[in-house]
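User: Before I run my own analysis I want an independent prediction to cross-check against. Here's the chain; please return only the structure tokens and, at the end, one sentence I can use as a sanity check.
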Amino acid sequence: REGPSYTVDTLKELLAAEDAPERLWFIAGADSFADMGSWKSCRELFSLADFAIMRRPPFGDNPEPPQKVARDFEKTADGWRHSSGRVVRFVAMTPIDISSTKIREALKNGRSIRYLVPESVRSLLEATP
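Assistant: Structure tokens:
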């Protein structure tokens, strides 16, 4: 798409597609989840997809929802349920020090991102001015 790209707009576009999935999962790190209260249309964001949140240090086992939208959630045995019925689940993972922020910084500073992303993605990103 042209212009700024916001997650809420991307999710709406995916859901409006003819071949839209019945359920859409958004995968993010715990650091991103903690910051989602500042994202565009964050209240609507959590009603469009289920969320799989990767547990990454320093965030505990099941981080709290962002304060701005916390009242829209109730705690469940395995995560959080949004008032829309969508869910937030937490996924354990082996911690590795890779993030989209670090990848963008490496690209900005002319450093290689080899082994941080799939080769097809690396060659595309490193070729983009």
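Sanity check: The chain has a mean pLDDT of 89.
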